[in-house]
Design goal:
By secondary structure, this protein is an all-alpha fold. The chain has one domain. The protein contains 16 helices and no strands. α1 crosses α10, α2 packs antiparallel against α6 and α8 crosses α16. The longest helix is centred in the middle third of the chain and has 26 residues. It is globular and about 55 Å long. The N and C termini lie far apart (43 Å). The model has no long low-confidence stretch (mean pLDDT 96).
Length: 287
């Protein structure tokens, strides 16, 4: 078997992960959850992403999601399960994924052989995932694979996303980055969410953000203007490389040729979704 090129799995993840994430920025998810009586957007997010684990409480979700303020999580869980049970929420999320992808990609792409091929490759990659110490991945791996190719691709992208995400949390702990330090340092790379979005969606206050910056400054990871120092850049690089190592299973299982093909197909789909307005224009960057 041909060895995987460096960062091949990460590049593939970067093409597929946003396809999964489209649903969280879609009005379709809010509409579907509102029909169940879940009107708050944050409650909808927590419920829809955690429903595969069952009617869990705030502690489990704060731990598994990592970078949300536990106080925000506790405002919505477990109360949301009194309004809609996990099975209803999962069905609503699938309906939202269906309408979202159809709108963003268009019916011609939805019915294309390329999308069907991408779904087959992504599902094959997911066969190489492992369950140990991966609660979000494992919960989603228990769900049935949808029959329609675009939903099968979305399901596989979900599995691969949560598999890497669970691994990334282990790497964050080893790097000794707490939830906000992880967010601040990621934003400083230029590849993370803008601070305004983080504060609005993760439940942290500006003073929390500033305190995290001060801690990173004290460790020599940020400089006075909030940019990464050489040490900070090295830590973020090491962090991603450790995540690559722990997440290599699905991509080694798929093989170098399959990973390259899936990356190309995923990028084409992602560019179509981007062009259709899948994400807010001010979502990324900033300091």
């Amino acid at each position: 078997m041909t060895p995987l090129p460096p960062r091949a799995g990460r590049r593939c993840h970067n093409a597929l992960n946003p396809l999964h994430s489209t649903v969280y920025f879609s009005p379709d998810l809010d509409r579907e959850l509102s029909r169940l009586g879940v009107a708050d957007a944050r409650a909808a997010y927590f419920a829809s992403r955690s429903a595969a684990m069952g009617a869990v409480g705030p502690g489990a979700v704060a731990a598994a999601f990592y970078n949300f303020n536990p106080e925000l999580v506790a405002r919505h869980l477990p109360a949301v399960w009194e309004t809609a049970d996990p099975e209803q929420v999962l069905a609503a999320r699938t309906r939202a994924a269906d309408t979202t992808l159809r709108r963003l990609l268009g019916e011609q792409v939805i019915e294309s052989k390329e999308l069907e091929e991408a779904a087959e490759l992504a599902l094959r990659a997911a066969e190489g995932c492992s369950r140990h110490a991966r609660p979000l991945y494992s919960a989603h791996a228990d769900l049935p694979v949808p029959g329609e190719p675009h939903l099968a691709l979305w399901h596989a992208a979900t599995l691969l996303r949560e598999h890497r995400g669970d691994a990334h949390l282990a790497a964050l702990l080893l790097a000794e980055l707490d939830p906000l330090e992880a967010l601040v340092s990621h934003t400083a790379t230029g590849k993370g969410m803008a601070p305004g979005w983080i504060l609005a969606t993760r439940g942290w206050r500006r003073e929390d953000w500033d305190a995290a910056r001060e801690r990173l400054l004290g460790r020599g990871l940020l400089d006075a203007d909030g940019s990464l120092t050489d040490a900070g850049t090295a830590l973020r690089t090491e962090l991603e490389e450790r995540t690559d190592l722990i997440d290599r299973g699905p991509y080694e299982h798929l093989g170098a040729d399959g990973v390259e093909r899936l990356t190309v197909l995923g990028r084409d789909l992602l560019m179509t979704a981007f062009a259709a307005g899948a994400f807010p224009p001010d979502l990324m960057g900033g300091a």
